[in-house]
Amino acid sequence: MSIAHTAIVGAGAWGTALAWLWGKDGRRVSLWGHNVNRVTRMQKTRENSDYLPGIKLPETVTVTSELPDCAGADLIVLVAPSTALREITIRLRKVISNPHAALLSCTKGIEHVTGMRMSQILHEAFPEHPIAVLSGPNLAVEIAQGLPTATVIASDDMDCAASLQGVLGSPRFRIYTSRDVVSVELGGALKNVFAIAAGISDGLGLGDNSKAALIIRSLAELVRLGVAMGGSVNAFYGLSGAGDLVLTSYSERSRNHTVGKRLGRGEPLDQITASMKTVAEGIPTTRSAWECARRLNIVMPIIDQVYAVLYQQKKPTAALEELLSREQKPEQL
User: Which of 54, 106, 182, 213 has its CA 20 to 30 A from that of 45?
Assistant: First the structure.
C-alpha cells in the first residue's frame, strides 16, 4: 500500500499527536478540525494549545477546517469522538475522491441505540474501501513527547493491516497486527467505562487493595460482555483490552479516570464535563454498554453501577455499597 498523503480527521489531542508522529518523518499529513477558530490559531502557531501545548507540528502537516482537503488522501484516519463519527462519515462520503483510500478508525466507542462499533459505521458508509482499527494503551501526550508506545492495528484484510504496520510503525511507536477487529475495538471502548469506576474508587479514597480487585473484576466483565458481542477471550488480554484497561485505570492523565475521581469526590457530572476541553469517551460508552448488556441478558454489576452514577444521579457511595453487598461466590474469569 502506497501512502503519499495521510489525512487525520479530528484535531483533538489524539489526532494532533498522530499528526506530529507521522509528520515529523517528512510525510505529507492533513489535519482536519471542526473548530475554525482553533484551526486558524494552529495554522499561525503550529501548536494545538488547547490539547497539546508545547508540541510544535512539523511543516509537513497542513491544518485545515475544510473536509475536502482530506478527500484525496491515500489513508484517512478517523479520530473524531464516537458520538460524532457517523455525522462526519456522512460528510466525508460526499467528498471522498480517492476510490482506493484506506480508512483507519482510532475512535474508541460504541454507538448509542445501534450498539455498532466504529468500524461497522465505516463499513456501512464505505463498503468498497479497506478498513482497519487502531487501539492500545496510548496516551496522546506521551506519544507527542516521543516516549515508547505499543498499539494494535486490526483488519479483516491482513494485507491492509501489514501495510499500515509497515508505513505507520516506528521503533517508538510499535505496532502489532490482528485479524480480530471485534475484540480490539471492544477492548478499547469498554475499558473507558471501567476507568471511570477506578477513578471513583480513587476519589472515594478506597486504597490500592480495593482498586486492584475492582480492576480485575472489571476485566472479567469486559471479557464477558466482549465475548457475548462477538469477541474472543484471548484477545481481551492483549494491548487493547487488559493493557488499555490498566493504563486508563491508573494514569492521572486519563480523561475517564479523571471524571471518575471527580465524581468520587462529590462533583456533579455536568460541572465536570463543562470544565473539560476534551471528550471522556467512557461517558457515552457506559450508556451503550449498559444497553448492549441488557439486550444480551449479561450480568454486569460494575457497568450497572457506573451507569447509575452517570445517568441516574446515584451517589458513588451508594453504588459502592451495592457492589460490596453482592453475594460472595466462587471466582470466575
Answer: 106
Mean pLDDT of 118-146: 97
CB 269 within 8 A of CB 256: no
The cell for 327 is 453475594
Question: Cα–chain-centroid distance for residue 169?
Answer: 19
Cβ within 8 Å of residue 314, ≥6 positions away? 305, 308
Question: In whole angstroms, what is the distance from residue 288 CA to residue 120 CA?
Answer: 15
Active-site option among 94, 108, 191, 211: 191
* Residue 104 dihedral angles phi and psi, to the nearest 5°: -120, 115
| Whether pLDDT at 327 is above 90 | no
Structure-block grid coordinates of residue 102: 484506506
* pLDDT for the residue 312: 97
Q: Could you tell me if 153 and 164 are in contact, meaning their C-beta atoms sit under 8 angstroms apart?
A: yes
Return the percentage of the chain with pLDDT > 90, whole number: 94
Q: Going from the N-terminus, what domains does the chain have, and what CATH number goes with each?
A: 5-179 (3.40.50.720), 182-324 (1.10.1040.10)
pLDDT confidence of residue 332: 75
* Mean pLDDT for all residues in the chain: 96
Q: Hey, what amino acid is at 83?
A: T
Residue pair 192/256 in contact (Cβ under 8 Å)? The answer is: yes
Q: What is the SS3 assignment for 20?
A: helix
Q: Is the pLDDT assigned to residue 304 strictly greater than 90?
A: yes
Query: Is residue 315 among the annotated active site residues?
Result: no
Task: Please give the average per-residue pLDDT across 284-301, as a whole number.
Answer: 97
Beta strands in the chain (DSSP E): 5-9, 28-32, 61-64, 75-78, 102-105, 131-135, 149-154, 173-178
CB 286 within 8 A of CB 189: no
